[in-house]
Amino acid sequence: MNETYSALAAFAQTWGLLYFVALFACVLAYALSPRRGQEFDAAARLPLSED
């Protein structure tokens, strides 16, 4: 294989993994944030509420 391709593939795999791990951590922190609890509880009860 081409040396440039191998270097670029290794770079993309390493930094891509780190990017997606950081993105997952941010989404997890958002979802588990205590400040968002009331919003998520209200959204969970929304289908059961009557207009």
Find the structural class using helix and strand composition: mainly alpha
How large is the count of helical segments? 2
Order of helices and strands: HH
Count of extended strands: 0
Beta-strand portion reads under 5%
Outline = rod-shaped
Mean pLDDT: 92
Strand count, sense and closure of the main sheet? none
Uncertain runs: none
State the end-to-end distance: 64 Å
Q: Helical percent range?
A: over 70%
Compute the CA-based radius of gyration.
20 Å
Give an overview of the whole structure.
This protein has 51 residues and is an all-alpha fold. The protein has 2 helices and no strands. The chain is rod-shaped and about 65 Å long. The mean pLDDT is 92.
Gist?
With 51 residues, the chain is an all-alpha fold.
Features:
51 residues, mainly alpha, 2 helices, 75% helix
Which SSEs are present, and which pair or pack?
Blueprint: H1 3-31, H2 37-45
